[in-house]
Design brief:
Elements (H helix, E strand, L loop, with lengths): L1 E4 L2 H13 L8 E4 L13 H14 L4 H30 L3 E6 L3 H14 L5 E6 L2 E4 L6 E4 L8 H6 L5 E2 L2 H17 L3 E5 L2 E5 L5 H5 L7 E2 H11 L5 H14 L2 E5 L12 E4 L1
Parallel strand pairs: 1-2, 1-3, 3-4
Antiparallel strand pairs: 4-7, 5-6, 8-9, 10-12, 11-12
Helix pairs in contact: 2-3, 4-6, 8-9
């Protein structure tokens, strides 16, 4: 069986589970396809679209030297995704079992739909492991809320869900593939998960929520983003950064101190409402 997830942090947890618990997942392979299909264009080459969009977002935060370095790093990331996809193709062609680790957010739901559309032409078995929404604290009986495998702090608890997989039927795979085609046809700027359904919407959907974390007092941009994502884990760092850039452009917020960190990033600059 091959484990598949759609973000680096979940992948890191899966690798650690296997390395520390003696292959507790009983898997031969772990693959990561780091996709943010909840926003941006879905037309054409989605990997190229994602790369171009993410570069555009992050370039606004770096000086010229850092931009060049970032472009190089991102090309490496694209090659890494391409390599993972080629290995995944081999598994699919061989009809191997693929187990998807899915969190309760629009990222992974969109990725599930995409994968079912991508894999439906193969005679393969697809299993899913859904994050239960709660987690038992390490060495404790206390239960805490957790909707993301990436944020799991109790890896033994996470590993136990490998035995609770759900096999997708052909009808489910076809349904999810159809839902992906619907999202591609709509090609909205943003996709959100509401009442367990992926809804296409405009990119300003979370604007009011983001602005609630910005006051008339100076606050670092990274703190604004971290506080927002801590309460509303509905997108990623880059998306919120892009919205803040838009707020600056239209005069809703202003830059108080345009300082950079040791990598040349403006993400630590301080901002406030106009």
């Amino acid at each position: 069986m091959t484990e598949l997830c759609f973000d680096d942090c979940t992948g890191g947890n899966l690798y650690e589970i296997n390395s520390t618990d003696g292959n507790a997942l009983h898997s031969e392979d772990i693959r990561i396809l780091d996709l943010q299909l909840n926003y941006g264009s879905l037309k054409g080459d989605i990997f190229k679209n994602q790369a171009e969009r993410e570069i555009k977002i992050y370039q606004s935060f770096f000086d010229d030297n850092s931009k060049k370095e970032l472009m190089t790093c991102y090309r490496e990331k694209l090659r890494s995704i391409g390599f993972a996809l080629s290995k995944l193709n081999e598994k699919l062609k061989d009809g191997e079992e693929i187990r998807l680790w899915l969190s309760n957010n629009a990222f992974d739901r969109c990725a599930l739909y995409w994968f079912c559309d991508y894999a439906k032409k193969y005679d393969c078995k697809i299993y899913i492991v859904l994050c239960p929404g709660v987690e038992q604290k390490q060495n404790s009986n206390i239960i805490i809320e957790n909707t993301r495998w990436a944020a799991s702090c109790n890896l033994s608890y996470m590993a136990s869900f490998a035995e609770k997989t759900e096999k997708l039927s052909k009808e489910q795979i076809d349904l999810y593939a159809d839902l992906w085609e619907k999202l591609v046809e709509e090609n909205a700027a943003l996709r959100v998960l509401i009442d367990n359904r992926v809804i296409s919407t405009s990119e300003d959907f979370f604007d009011n929520a983001i602005l609630r974390f910005i006051s008339g007092e100076p606050k670092s941009q990274v703190s604004v983003i971290s506080d927002f994502l801590g309460k509303w884990y509905c997108s990623d760092f880059g998306f919120v950064s892009e919205r803040i850039e838009y707020f600056i452009k239209i005069g809703k917020i202003e830059i108080v101190e345009n300082k950079t960190d040791n990598k040349g990033s403006f993400i630590i600059r301080t901002i406030k409402k106009q």
